[in-house]
Amino acid sequence: xxxxxxxxxxxxxxxxAAEVRKDIRFYLRPTKAVNEQYAADKLSELPGETQDHxxxxxxxxxxxxxxxxxxxxxxxSMLKPGVTGTEIEAVLRAFLSMDLxxxxxxxxxxxxxxxxxxxxxxxxxxxx
Length: 128
Description:
InterPro entries: Plasmid_stability_protein_StbB (IPR019720), StbB_sf (IPR038307). Pfam families: Plasmid_stab_B. It comes from Enterobacter vonholyi. This is Plasmid partitioning/stability family protein. With 128 residues, this protein is mainly α. The protein has a domain at 29-99 and 109-125. It is 52% helix and 9% strand. It contains 5 helices and 2 strands. It has helices at residues 34-45, 50-67, 71-78, 85-97, 110-125, and strands at 2-7, 19-23. The chain has a two-stranded antiparallel sheet with strand order 1-2. Helix 3 packs antiparallel against helix 4 (85-97). The longest helix has 18 residues, at 50-67. It starts with a strand and ends with a helix.
């Protein structure tokens, strides 16, 4: 990952304004991991720009980490043919049903209370 890369944004040919962006690259290893093969197959089926989807998926993973830092890895490990939305929802419910007051708080700050609030907000968005 490179830090601050200045480039003109795509599609902006006649502008002098530079955009500051982070360049994040990674490789899927479809021959080494079932979940990465599944992801590679699904990405090739999606319409539009892969980089746009990858940006959204990365941001979604960061949002899930706000609920519990283990959640993105757990969900990623479940990714394979045959897994259902119901199974993924069950994992989300399990994480959201944890008593958040019993989880160890390393630093007690306004930021940590926002994380707990995020978990409660996500819990309220899921159907019963």
